[in-house]
Amino acid sequence: MANEAHFLSTSLPFLSFNKAVLPEFRQSKGLSFLVNSRISRSKQTRASMEMRGSGGPMTSDHSAVKIPHVLTVAGSDSGAGAGIQADLKACAARGVYCSTVITAVTAQNTVGVQGVNIVPEDFVAEQMKSVLSDMDVDVVKTGMLPSIGIVKILHQQLQVYPVRALVVDPVMVSTSGDVLAGPSILAVFREELLPMADIVTPNLKEASALLDGVKINTVSDMHSAAKLLHDMGPRNVLVKGGHLPDSLDAVDVFFDGEHLYELRSSRIKTRNTHGTGCTLASCIAAELAKGSSMLKAVKASKFFVETALDYSKDISIGKGPQGPFDHLMNLKHNSGRQVRFNPSDLFLYAVTDSRMNRKWGHSISDAVKDAVQGGATIVQLREKDIETGDFLEAAKSCLQICRANGIPLLINDRIDVALASDADGVHIGQSDMPAHVARSLLGPEKIIGVSCKTPEQAEQAWLGGADYIGSGGVYPTNTKENNRTIGLDGLKTVCLASKLPVVAIGGINISNAHAVMEIGVPNLKGVAVVSALFDRECVLTETRKLHAVLTEATAAAAAAAK
Ligand SMILES: Cc1ncc(COP(=O)(O)OP(=O)(O)O)c(N)n1
Ligand SMILES: Cc1ncsc1CCOP(=O)(O)O
Ligand SMILES: [Mg+2]
Fold first, then answer.
1. What is the pLDDT of residues 112-128, one digit of tens each?
2. pLDDT tier at 562 (50, 70, 90 boundaries)?
3. Which residues form the Thiamine phosphate synthase/TenI domain (predicted)?
């Protein structure tokens, strides 16, 4: 294995630069030559392919699970902000398998591109064949295609091994301004690559280059460019306006041949934008591989990039002007988090209601004290009709009770009250500010819960950095007006789609809590209740009863799972 892993060497030149593009690359000093260790590699690959083809153990495994698969055909970025490395991270973040065909190896960092070494065309072809002949690729995404021959190879291979979609990011210039595919390649991009593409995603410079230098300075110019590019053959066009002068928003123009859409998102002020184009295209490919429509894939990808940029705006990697960002959004979101949220805290989630407390003559802090003593594992103050000052005072006194009992206290809707009282977090709904904005305001250590009725909302909550979701109304309720009931089936659908732990809410009480917990989905961690605890004379007794029911239900579920 050691000799096979030996890929870089100083002896044999693997390839000289392609003559057509040579002048456009900056020559680097002391470039390593790629050495040919192909013979033993390809033998091994062929051997394993033959084994699969002959119906060996791999092909007879009927229980195998198909995972959405993107193949990226792109260049390697040693700084790992863009290129193949960005594609791998983006696909991983979107839950999709990503295989790779490397077209060029670049030496680059946050300062710029110091060197480029193109992989020989026959070896690009060999990589492509290895993957496409063996693996069930759904979508191919292209990035840096540095020679005419490589574009032609892609064309041929996709004839032999058709895939569901081709996403073309027509990479020509890096974010640092270095040329990655020069003018000589434009003709083959126009004539062979674009007609094959299901979507092409140029930035303004690339769109202009593909359109013979036409000026694109306004959103209206972007509309015209999208239409002209569409005439070249791709099924869809996304012209990215990230570099549009004088624009407060980041506006992209999407054209599907019929309708033009302006897709806007807030412009994030950060130096960490290296690799956004690669990431966006990979994310679109990943969403298509999962079965999304094109417009939905584009919108989800734009939101993903915006969220990742927002999370990563303050990270510092490298000394140059263009830093990479954190695709997995962990550097800020998770690491350094001192008190990590424990999903089992969702077990018996008590949500207060001032109207009910008034009805029974309970103060908020007495009601919370009783719920905590009765076994509540987390408390949310949902005070819809009190003054801000009173809310803050209530939050401070309830916080003392909860802290003394080691129980988190969350504030419903009011991020300002959560910040001012130093509560443990917030619970926000779909009409409140997005989770990622709440996360920016609250920082990495606070708990954020989001109400979700659909798998899509659950995905957005996860992307936005939420810790859990609340899903319901499971049953009809009088506590929240005009609230759609999703039933046990709706709850189960959301739980199965959610990457976050879930607490069920809406009309849950001691008679039906067992049925809720019985749906048997591991990330359903508990129930959130208002009236079953607080619209009662004795909060302590009711909480104890519900705790007992939940304990019984969980024990029964554990026994059934054995
Ligand atoms: C745990 C939990 N889940 C859902 C909700 C509902 O929040 P929201 O949709 O914002 O509605 P209001 O509670 O604000 O009326 C919740 N509060 N807690
Ligand atoms: C706040 C909320 N969100 C969805 S249903 C609901 C009300 C739950 O109250 P109850 O437990 O009294 O039905
Ligand atoms: Mg709310």
1. 999 999 999 999 999 99
2. low
3. 348-533
Q: What is the pLDDT of residues 7-46, one digit of tens each?
A: 222 222 233 233 233 333 333 322 333 333 322 323 233 2
Query: Which residues have a Cβ under 8 Å from the Cβ of 511 and sit 6 or more positions away?
Result: none
Q: For ligand 2, is residue 507 a contact (CB within 6 Å)?
A: yes
Same-domain status, 375 and 235: no
Pocket test for ligand 2, best of 468, 486, 503, 530 (most atoms within 8 A of CB): 530
Question: Angle, nearest 10°, between helix axes 294-311 and 455-463?
Answer: 30
By DSSP bridging, strand 33-34 and strand 8-9 are: antiparallel
Give the sign of the dihedral formed by CA 458, CA 460, CA 463, CA 466. Answer: negative
Retrieve residue 358's tokens.
């008034």
Q: Kindly provide the ipTM of the predicted complex, given to two decimals.
A: 0.96
Rounded distance, CA 145 to CA 397, Å? 62
Neighbours of 246 (CB within 10 A): 6
Q: How many domains in the chain?
A: 2
How far is the centre of ligand 1, averaged over its atoms, from the C-alpha of 452 (Å)?
9
The CB of 351 under 6 Å from ligand 1? The reply is yes
Question: Is the domain of 439 the same as that of 476?
Answer: yes
Q: Hey, is 543 helix, strand or coil?
A: helix
Ligand 2 atom nearest to 508, measured from its CA = 11
| Least confident window among 47-61, 442-456, 502-516 | 47-61
CATH number, domain containing residue 120: 3.40.1190.20
User: Do 314 and 348 belong to one domain?
Assistant: no
Range of the domain at 404: 343-561
Say if 338 falls within a structural domain: no
Q: Is the CB of 484 under 6 A from ligand 1?
A: no
174 C-beta closer than 6 A to ligand 2: no
Give the model's confidence band at 376: pLDDT under 50 very low, under 70 low, under 90 confident, else very high.
very high
For residue 505 and ligand 2, the question of a CB distance below 6 A is answered with: yes
The structure's pTM equals 0.60
Same domain, 32 and 74: yes
In a domain, 59, yes or no: no
User: 493 and 455 in contact (C-beta within 8 Å)?
Assistant: yes
Judge whether 55 lies within some domain. Answer: no
Domain boundary among 333, 356, 387: 333
Q: Phi and psi (nearest 5°) for 421?
A: -90, -10
The rounded Å distance from CA 412 to ligand 3 centre is 6
At 223, list the tokens: 């509309």
Q: Which atom of ligand 2 is nearest to the CA of 474?
A: 5
